[in-house]
Amino acid sequence: MSIESDMIHVEVVYALPNEQRVFTLVVNKAMTVEEIIEQSGVIEQYPEIDLKQNKVGVFSRNVKLDATVRDKDRIEIYRPLLADPKEIRRKRAEQAKAVGAVDPVTGGKKNPLRKES
User: Fold this and answer.
1) I want to staple 71 with a disulfide (CB 3.0 to 4.6 A). Which of 4, 7, 8, 38 is the partner?
2) How far apart are CA 33 and CA 8, in angstroms?
3) Residue 110 has what DSSP assignment?
4) What is the rounded distance in angstroms from the CA atom of residue 100 to the CA atom of residue 18?
5) Which H or E run contains 37?
6) Domains of the chain by range and CATH?
7) Which of 46, 53, 50, 56 is nearest to 16 (CA)?
């Protein structure tokens, strides 16, 4: 087996609110996700990344740091959520209810065609 056939092309992606960084690498196909991330240099450029805290994935699917990848995979480093999406939706629904912007029957948006009783 040749050395070239042991190599694969991958991307490591880290997205911030105002920028997205893509690191393109050629690595040995036996390398783990963690080894590829470390080799990419993303951790040196963004020291806030902690692989013990941040989740990682391949094409939006969570993977463990010891997973291997295939040719042309994109490894994504996810930032922690600032707020729980369920909690935000619950608060928004409570606010709409408080100002009378919800239909009392359905709990959804008011239907402009519905006659008030």
Assistant:
1) 8
2) 13
3) P
4) 36
5) helix 33-40
6) 4-77 (3.10.20.280), 82-111 (no CATH)
7) 46
- Angle at the Cα of 27 from the Cα atoms of 21 and 32, rounded to 5 degrees: 85
Residue 12: other Cβ atoms inside 10 A: 25
Mean pLDDT in order along the chain per 10 residues (117 residues): 77 92 95 96 93 93 95 94 80 78 71 70
Provide the token pair at 67.
């997973």
Do residues 51 and 79 make contact, with C-beta atoms less than 8 angstroms apart? Answer: no
Q: What pLDDT is stored for residue 2 in this prediction?
A: 54
Q: Give the number of other Cβ atoms within 10 Å of residue 29's Cβ.
A: 13
* Cβ atoms within 10 Å of 3's Cβ, excluding its own: 7
Sheet containing 7-15: give its strands across: 20-28, 7-15, 73-77, 56-58, 61-63
Cβ burial of 91 (10 Å; 0-12, 13-18, 19+) is exposed
